[in-house]
Write a structure and sequence with these properties.
Length: 360
């Protein structure tokens, strides 16, 4: 049996996306959905390992693929220690940090754990590519204003890096030859200045920057502190207000930008104001990140699900078009990005990284 397939595993909070690639061709892909009642049984993300792995193996069998045909397995990497961008081979120290959630709990922590387990059975290598913990910050970007609180690099690194590579290809140059601001406009929003291939700052989609479909972004800090000490909320409830139930959800009761646009079309003035406020905050953050690059910006790229919206992208373009060319790369294709990351190291285009050698 020849080994020609790459299994790609991308665990999210409510589903595990799986795909099998042959070369650059996506042969088959599926969202394995997890009912909240199923996931409630587990108190920690790492405990979902056997449950999700079993579903993946059953799916492979249904699709007629054997693990003996795998050439490699790649998973989305999680909240590891701050690390340089790249494709990493999954090692035991990495598995340890994914299991304990060294920077926190995130469904993507399971990506490397499941990838290694299946790869070990198949006797092949496993990888992760550009996890959310990729950290290429300039030192100056780490300073927050309070010595005991650091600005941290947590961002949609996988899609942003993949888009940066694609734009460079389209422009017929190397990613290291370009300065860009890339705005990932998804359920969360990451706005990132890229200087010669490095993501040197970011808003941290969970804590700062523009509000998004379901996250609050930066809010007036004094009022937030008062809310925390009001006695009306638990820590969990406050966290949920910031990520999950903030942004469009808090104002309009939906995290679906398409629904909001429908509300606007039906004449809802509040929906219009809130949606424009989101566009306004996105544009303002892009402007701020352009200053990080001292205005030397070759392109501004809008990506993620909301980049499909002509209304939103036009609104943003009107405010930032004076800075640089605006390119739209709607949606995200993390499965392709994971597969491409493996190909870059298998072909020798890029050197594979080893986690324990790269992190402090
Ligand atoms: N055609 C469209 N027009 C407007 N908004 C859209 C369109 N398609 C998707 N969206 C919006 O994009 C958002 C989701 O984006 P995306 O799928 O990139 O997010 P996600 O993968 O759930 O989260 P994240 O990007 O934070 O990982 C939703 O608000 C969705 O309504
Ligand atoms: C922390 C940003 C990445 C994500 O929301 O998945």
């Amino acid at each position: 049996m020849s080994r020609e397939y790459i299994l790609v595993i991308n665990p999210g909070s409510t589903s595990t996306k799986v795909a099998i690639f042959k070369g650059y061709n996506n042969m088959v892909q599926k969202n394995l959905n997890h009912l909240s009642t199923e996931l409630e049984r587990f108190s920690k993300i790492a405990e979902q390992f056997s449950y999700r792995k079993k579903m993946i193996l059953e799916w492979m069998e249904e699709e007629g693929f054997s693990i003996k045909e795998l050439k490699a397995v790649v998973g989305r990497g999680g909240l590891l220690k701050p690390m340089p961008s790249g494709t990493y081979i999954v090692t035991d120290p990495m598995i340890h940090d994914l299991k304990i959630g060294v920077q926190g709990e995130h469904a993507s922590n399971l990506g490397g754990i499941i990838a290694k387990s299946i790869a070990d059975e198949a006797n092949v290598k496993s990888f992760i590519v550009d996890p959310v913990a990729v950290d290429e910050f300039h030192e100056v970007a780490r300073i927050s204003g309070l010595p005991d609180i650091k600005r941290r690099s947590l961002l949609h690194a996988l899609n942003i890096k993949a888009v940066a590579y694609r734009v460079a290809k389209e422009k017929n140059c190397h990613v290291n030859d370009l300065n860009m601001v890339i705005a990932h406009l998804g359920g969360g929003i990451s706005i990132v200045p890229i200087q010669k291939g490095k993501m040197i700052d970011a808003n941290n989609a969970n804590e700062m920057g523009p509000f998004s479909p379901e996250r609050s972004g930066s809010v007036p800090v004094g009022d937030l502190v008062k809310m925390c000490f009001s006695g009306n909320y638990t820590l969990g409830e406050i966290k949920k207000k910031i990520t999950g139930k903030g942004g469009l959800v808090a104002y309009l009761g939906t995290n679906d930008a398409r629904e909001v646009e429908k509300m606007i079309d039906d004449g809802d003035e509040k929906a219009k104001l809130v949606y424009e406020a989101m566009g306004y905050q996105i544009a303002k953050e892009i402007g701020a990140m352009a200053t990080v690059l001292k205005g030397e910006v070759d392109a501004i790229v809008l990506t993620g699900g909301m980049a499909y919206s002509k209304r939103l992208t036009e609104f943003i373009k009107n405010r930032i078009g004076f800075i640089a060319q605006v390119i739209i790369h709607p949606g995200e294709d993390e499965m392709t990005a994971l597969n491409e990351g493996v190909h870059r190291v298998l072909s020798g285009e890029e050197k594979v990284k080893i986690y324990e050698q790269e992190v402090k």
